Fold each of these.
Amino acid sequence: MNLSIALAALWGLAANVIALLPSRDYHWRAAYVLIAVGIPILGYVTWQNGPWVGLIVLVAGMSVLRWPVIYFGRWVKRRARRSPGE
């Protein structure tokens, strides 16, 4: 196992430990930090192991952080539905 995969596994472990802890803001601050740390790790995994492994790690990360992905998808739909004159 190379360093990039080990970092991705460590990120996943940290995300799961954070999910176990109580939070007043429903873990949104932790999600922002995990996203900010996860993007460079994803790039490193993709650079070191290729796009297919990077895609697998991306899907794994999206399954852990599914609510930010869902809210982003809803935001994109709302923006796409607006008429060009608005």
Amino acid sequence: MKRFITLSLLLAASFVNAQAFKGKGDVKFDVGANIQNGGAGIGISSDFGLGENMSYGFAASYLLSASSDDLGNKPKFGDRIDAKFRFNANLGNVFQLDKKMDIYPGLDLGLRNFGAHLGFRYFFTEGFGIFTEAGIPIASYKTNPVGFDKLNNQFVFNIGASFNL
């Protein structure tokens, strides 16, 4: 029940805000819930526009609720946290979508792996909307992640809010 209430509060808090990609000089800040096998948590990311359709940024996540291993051990702080450098191709205008929408595939290089993500944003106003993003690891730094190493080396789904700074 405690996990359900925590996750519900995170999801409710994350449905707050988003922004359309404007190009060079644009700065975006996302806050959302992170859902994956064996845990759920929070994530933040920030992207900076490089050109009309490119951006780079940083992302961090922390698992608030994580499963214990077979021996009953709980994951430590270092097992729950991940940080990444990311690069996005913002393709909303390439696909001639409404200016309120953006699709952004990208690559990320993190503390745990090299991965890819695909996201979508819908903007209610210039600085307010929602986003959803799915990510997968392409190459893990450990050949065979076991135990808590699997927490940050798997499919992950994010949903939340984005702010245009």
Amino acid sequence: MHTQVVQERMLISDQWQHGQQSIEVIDPGTNHVIATVPAATEADAKAAIEAAKEGAEIARQMPIHERAAILKRTAEIVTRDRELFAQTIAKEGSKTIREARSEVRRCIETLTLSGEEAKRLHGETIPFSQMPGHERRVGYFYRFPIGIIVAITPFNDPLNLVAHKIGPAIAAGNSLIIKPSSFTPLSALRLVKALEEAGLPKKIVQVITGHGSVIGPTLTKHRDVRLISFTGGYETGEKIARSAGVKKLAMELGSNSPTIVLQDAELMEAVASCVSGAFCAAGQNCIGVQRIYVEQSVFNSFIQSFVAQTKQLRLGDKQSEETDIGPMISEKEAKRIERWVEEAKEEGARVLTGGRRTGAYFEPTVLTNVSPSSRLAKEEAFAPIVIIEGVHSLTEAIARANDVDFGLQAGLFTNNLTAAFSAIEKLEVGGIMVNDSSDVRIDAMPFGGIKKSGLGREGVRYAIEEMTEQKVVAFHLPEHKI
């Protein structure tokens, strides 16, 4: 059956426009082209920045109640069209239709929170008289918009992670240029159209599609860009940081997330949580469970139940309501993880289930006896892969959990408060989920990591703080004479 290919446009300045060249958007499940988007040029990137200068002034002058109202209306439009948004996510990316609907719900929450937080842009009073010689001074600080923001978003959450850039940027009174992943640009384009329908003035938000190697340097190096908000891989983040110059960076760069299961844990709850955390979105999740460390006394029981539940997962058509796991984002990525698994096997690892590839589909895979120095153990797999190893103590588990260059989130299962607080103190991560796997996030919480996992924090309120600057005001009062 012939599928009509939609020719989408990008929004630069106040015009939706085609490009001289285009990029094909491919459904990784069928390998069919479902749309094309413009391949923007360096000139397009410069034009977007010039328009963003005007947009920044428009946004800065917009009253807070208008910012909040636009975000609320956008959330209502996404709610109205939620199935269309879900179908878009499921067609262009890896998520199943059920996972896509969940992402749409989170997008609605993110936009709603952004509208609410716009009204909470508070400052603080400063007691200047705390310092001798300043007895007649009073002051405060308030937050003002940073200006032009460039946001570069990944393929794995093509709608909600865009909302996590757009919502706080508008709430804070900034202009924004979105550069979505070339794998999954359609969700971002649809969300920006919803913002237009909600009444957002032109030039405040633009969306430019294209190859990062062509337009990325122009967007990130430009002196008028004041903040780069990037979600993606460490290597790309490092290149951006080296080239950006003196400007603010907010980066979430992935992880290799551990979860620890102690002998006193509710074992079946731990198994179910870790299976979900390891394999949702075909494992392409920055806080997905990649390594599990289980105390030896319950190791065999845990791993038997884990493998049994993994084998029940259904791999297949993303549009089917029965499917649990869809394809990886491309056959190239599936071949990469296939090589990693083969390398691990050559180093002595055992595959307990899975390990086979068909096109872009990779079976949910459980390994044990993986060398601590292998790529699967050290790097971010971003695939439906999990390593399970036995440990003799919490101390050993923490040491092994920390023995990577990443530190985004970790999970811990225990009913021992002393053990929990010990792990909270010693795990080198930005978030610890107790009696949950590492794969837990709400859109209102501060989200980010340490080490190679990034800089700064997302989560609506905390992103707004990153997207604003503080201005201090002090009054030197005349001496009172009565």
